[in-house]
Amino acid sequence: MSTKIEISGETKGERRVLTGNAAAAYGALLARPDVVALYPITPQTEVVELLSQFHANGLLDAEMIQVEGENSAMSSIIAASVAGGRVFTATSSWGLAFMYDAFLMAAGTRTPAVMVNVNRETPGIYSVSCSRQDMMSVRDAGWIQIEVETTQEVLDTVLMAYRLAEDNDILLPVMVSYDGYYLSFMSEDMEIPPQEYADRFLASLKEQPERLKLVPGGPLGFHAHALLEDFMEYRYKHVAAMERTKNKLVEVEKEFEDIFGRNYHGAVEEYRCEDADIVLMTMGSSTGTARVAVDKKREQGIKVGLVKLRLFRPFPKEIVAKVLKGKKAVGVIDRSVCFGWDGGHLYNETKAALYDSGQNVKLVDYITGIASLDITIDHLERAIDEVGQAAKGKPVKDVTWLPLE
Amino acid sequence: MDACEGRGNKNNLGAVIKIVGDVAGKHSAATCYQCSKPECMDVCPSDAITKSDTDGVVRVDMELCTGCEACVDGCPYGMMLFNNDQQIATKCDTCDGSPVCEGACPHGVLSFAKSAPVRKYMQDEDLLSPGVAFCAGCGLELAVRFALKVLGKDIVLFSSASCSAPVLIGTGDYSLEKTAFYACLMTNIASSASGYARYYKKIGKDVTPVCFVGDGNTVDIGFQNLSGAAERGENIIYICYDNEGYMNTGYQKSSTTPQGAWTSTTQVGSTGKGKSTPAKDMPLLMAMHDIPYVATATLSNLEDFAAKLLKAKEAKKHGLAYLHLYTPCPTGWKLAPDSTIEMCRNAVESNFFPLWEAENGNIRFTYEPKEAKPLASFIKMARKFSHLTDEDIQVLQEQTEKRFARLKKLASDC
Fold first, then answer.
1. Predicted ipTM of the assembly
2. Is residue B291 within 8 Å of B360, Cβ to Cβ?
């Protein structure tokens, strides 16, 4: 299923048709990591295969650790980071579950690791298919989480992730996620930027105060017991760093645009929202489908817009409240299930954000696209119609499972 | 004691070796321990007692001795003696390295072990703080204190939740050892050390990550990542201190708990008889990885332990070096706190815990008892075995013999 990529031997800016996995591997390559941990899992495998090929071709000057499981993948890069290195790994779903204790450790120890997570259904019901249940199951673990829409955005966001993770104001691990099977294996026209662009973009990290490192001979302990107020202070600072991420992402994207000429609008992108009465809210690869559905409905004279959430953790609640202000109804497209709350994660979190801002905007949720069920233009046109009805005060189900209902 | 009469062609000042503990037919020989900080030397008002820098022996200068007997009172072990005829103090001086008693013993009980290398380490800086919170008689404390001295300060210590955690991990900014320390999870000690080592490899600098880890972490929950690191040839030292269970959480069963042993999760009662299956032979499993170095060691044979630590440090340059330490836990084993070393010695002398090493999978013994001591003669010193019947002990005895025979065969094939 995976697309074979020719390794040209150079990474000068060039247009290529690449899968999301290849884009992730090129992103990691351009970031010049010191240590990379490799473990295969569908639909991520192509990422580690390509990195291995880059290394074999002499393009990637990194220590490659072919670990025996995801727990060791995460554990080894935490330690390599604490030693002083730039690190990378990639995983998905079951692998994410298997590294969970180390995953939490990375966050609690403020390790500036970057990991790609290729969204896949989680264990319990055996399935080799897409959903965002994996990344949502770790939303409270303390990582920065960014979900992307296109292969170009995969590559670009991996580079941006290092600017967030290793920033002295942040120092948190960053997970860049994209929909498995859709973005992971499908190819799009994109640009591999020149290495010197990436170097220039990441150069400012070298000008920061030197990170605390664990060095031999120094009586410094890493990951020591934290008691009482100490513990609370660590948590408090962690949360504060997450809050700072919201503005930092905008700053980083501004610099990115100056160098690369592309921008993803920070935490949230608005599409045709200015005069919209109703909007759809999406994340990830199905945003492209939603753009088409919105365009079609616009042609019919319906004032519908689209809000794409890019930054999921920290949740940009202020921006979400702002962009939804004055809308009559919102249709949320969820690709995961929030057990115990009827509805998906994006739906419930958006509701919470609106409550804080004192707005009572009608939200309608669609659980769709789980288990790699396609989110089609028809589905989203139906959603727009129903949200339009809700905007007029007509009764519409709060949560609809598409295409089950 | 007769042999002492003719010691070293010196003036005959009487025997300086004693027979002690002459109760119920059990006794042993005792003489001066040649203390690293001799109390006798401290209390001597005439500077007649000195400790040699070359052989470590504490000697009395007969010319300077005034016969005040302060040293006799000062020695906490009762090993400074007094010659009434000549009115001077006397003690064992090892016959300057060739003790007459050794050859004189008709039962071959006495042997002379040169402790100079170990003594040197004893004088090195202690890299573990004093007054740490281990139980009385803890084998782990002795092991880690000694291992740190041999390996030196320029290591990075990796450990996790375990008995060693409160001491090694420390709290907040405070740690109780003077080396760099990395607190791992129970699942990721070898993998953490791998990542650390790899970064140093990337920047072209030498580093010695040392994992100091209990048996629960090593043989149970952390087995996978250790095996992976061994197979990948990561340049790290991994030391497992095996106290045969999860002692920090209150003596639960692990995969190295011996068959029959009581633990708090293999209880003894009307149907329970302690652990029902044999222990995992972890050092042999590690040797089967064909890594540069695997060895067993324990606290009764410190020179053997020291030599193996140094070999491990060298072997680490070529891949993973693994040491498996037999480390009694007096609290969890219900063993008298002053019997830790004796238990180690018994384990070695009975072949319950043979001392061997394997370089690249080639096994050889580093010590072999002349005659294997039966388990029945000592096993109940640890009261975790106190409920065992003669038949139960026989099961353990047969397991011990079977494993030793297997090891012998492997060693002879190498």
1. 0.95
2. yes
